[in-house]
């Protein structure tokens, strides 16, 4: 059991004995999660579910009521607050929950699913209690540097081209995989939309001899990126621009965006397509790498509100709103879902190695919230709840294409 | 100049001198095709356009009027009837026309484009004159056997894995490429929807040791396929079923369809998804190989009416209507457009080698129509007007997936 759970599970329930209504709510919730494969224990020891060694402790009555009302939003809040604790492996618990939610939703015959299928309640006053869960990109570069790869600070899916690769090697392999898909050649002009801490732009300039212009709206990330370009002597070949992707202008031979589309929102895909159409040379290639879905679906409420405001991973069909209106030709789509699960396992391991420092500097709720976010994202990719699409495209009349994809597998 | 054009270009125009209106129509049509890069010559020698050595001869007044009214429908009819003749390479003429049509449509500032953008006129009485252009699959197996590959009679895009492959080798490579994507293993159960003359089913059973059930509604094709299975001693491992894809039942480890989707129609994609969902085992893989488009667009009117009734190649976004409602996970999309252009060049070469026999047995119109169809399809793929998508998919929770696509490139 984790130390948070230890502390939370002090003897002496905080809410008196569970009532008949409490027990009814608990049973109703578990009926909506068929085959969940774990036990749920209330503050007074009341329990339902399978005794598999994996246990969820709900530590007060209000927590139970909130959880039943909207589990996808409140589970995260309650777990972060220490009002729910998991005894056993967090990722396994989340994987089983994702699977049970899918089975329950498909069966759709419980009272809870009638409740859960309605519109999500608006962000409540609980939000006020989580001021310490800052917006994603205001958290400071050091926070991310502590658990991302040490070379290029890639906060996107790595590519484990060979089994047993380190995170650093797999991030390099991801960058090379994208560069090979784009067939980068020395002297080409590359535009990168959403460049994070700039590591990929540097990689392209250093390893492929291209000229890169890279856009990002995060001031902290741009500053970090520009400092690094100078210190590596690559500032003549890489320019970082603090501006929105909608303002990208000029001509490029390759247009690449790794991990930005999730933040763009489907309502802006047409504009993104316009931007690319305005910039891409006739024989140019483009690649968009994004978290995705098997069908259009809203983001998990908790992650969308507390961790990644506004994030919306698209289905492949939704992504086509970038390409089809401009008649771009999709050449290659690769789904790297299991590579993202592996990437997240690396990140979570590194995060847990520094969680005590995170707790000391940012508080226990923040530390738990980010552990949950990394574990939950791992589970979302292992269970197929989330996808990772790389979409390579060209203008419709571009015939300067490799005969096969064999060059990606040297 | 081809022998048809020779005959058609006998001295002595059939329609008297071109009138002022004729010349105005001709100039208006060419203004709608900017940069067409050829000369158009009327029956009396009146000509407009670029003197590039490539010439279109319009041999009577009614032909000009029909062509201006609806070129995408009537060009094919008029060419087949010998009322339009091409002096120079037919594929080059068609490629330039596709490009000029696209440029003209984009500019959209000519009187012709206002006419052409309207609803297509209904099939006219001309249709009666083309009874000899039979529906696609009633033409007899011998007709196709004369110009398809000699081993497996694949009437779908080949895969030129290595430069200079023969058509036979490239069709084998296509079948192996699909089998590798599906990761076929001995003893697995494969369902094939739309099996043509059965060559792919035989290949899977023979080379991969799988059990195949293959569906097709064409009686002639099914009979040919079953005969071949018996003569190869594979009838214990391959069963051909004369029935519609909607009636496919049972469980399979792989669901594959090569070149059927074009005939299914987007309105039935949901049903096709249901069929696959009903049949595919939890760890199964599926692949759909289809001609496609960069955006939703109707088929060329002439091909749809005279050659391939009801054909409708989908955009990738349209194809998602098969997968997204059932939450299938798209793993890999490959666009093999230029492989189809190469396949068609092989078919057209073989077709031209037997065109005299085709003309003798089926008449000059039929012979010209099929030449035009093969040349026009080549041009559609070289100009990016048409795509060829292979879409590999699995159930959302299937994690039995290869780490990379390297196994496709041994």
Structure description:
The structure is a homodimer of 410-residue chains. The first copy, chain A, is an alpha/beta fold and 410 residues long. Chain A has two domains: 3-118, 2-Layer Sandwich (Nonspecific Lipid-transfer Protein, Chain A), CATH 3.30.1050; 141-408, Rossmann fold. Helices cover 44% and strands 16% of the residues of chain A. In chain A, the strands form two sheets. The first copy, chain A, has a seven-stranded mixed sheet with strand order 7-6-5-8-9-11-10. In chain A, strands 2-1-3-4 form a four-stranded mixed sheet. In chain A, helix 3 runs antiparallel to helix 4 (71-80). Residues 1-13 and 121-134 of chain A have low confidence and may be disordered. Chains A and B meet through helix 14, strand 10, helix 15 and strand 11 of A and helix 14, strand 10, helix 15 and strand 11 of B. Strand 10 (328-335) of chain A pairs antiparallel with strand 10 (328-335) of chain B, so a sheet runs across the interface.
- Tell me about the largest β-sheet of chain A: 7 strands, mixed
Strand tally of chain A, please? 11
CATH superfamily of the largest domain in chain A: Vaccinia Virus protein VP39
Structural class of chain A: alpha/beta
Oligomeric organization of the protein chains: homodimer
- Fraction of helical residues of chain A: 40-55%
Name given to the CATH architecture of the largest domain in chain A: 3-Layer(aba) Sandwich
What's the arrangement of strands in the largest beta sheet of chain A?
7-6-5-8-9-11-10
Examine the coordinates and then state which fold CATH places here, giving the name of the CATH topology of the largest domain in chain A: Rossmann fold
* Rg over CA atoms of chain A: 23 Å
Mean pLDDT of chain A: 90
Greatest interface and its residue counts? A-B, 47 and 47 residues
The CATH C-level name of the largest domain in chain A is Alpha Beta
Number of helices of chain A: 17
Number of domains of chain A: 2
Helix and strand pattern of chain A: HHEEEHHEHHHHEHEHEEHHEHHEHHHE
Shape of chain A: elongated
What low-confidence regions of chain A span 5 or more consecutive residues with pLDDT below 50? 1-13, 121-134
- The end-to-end distance of chain A, rounded to whole angstroms, is 46 Å
**What share of the residues of chain A does DSSP label as strand, in percent?**
15-25%
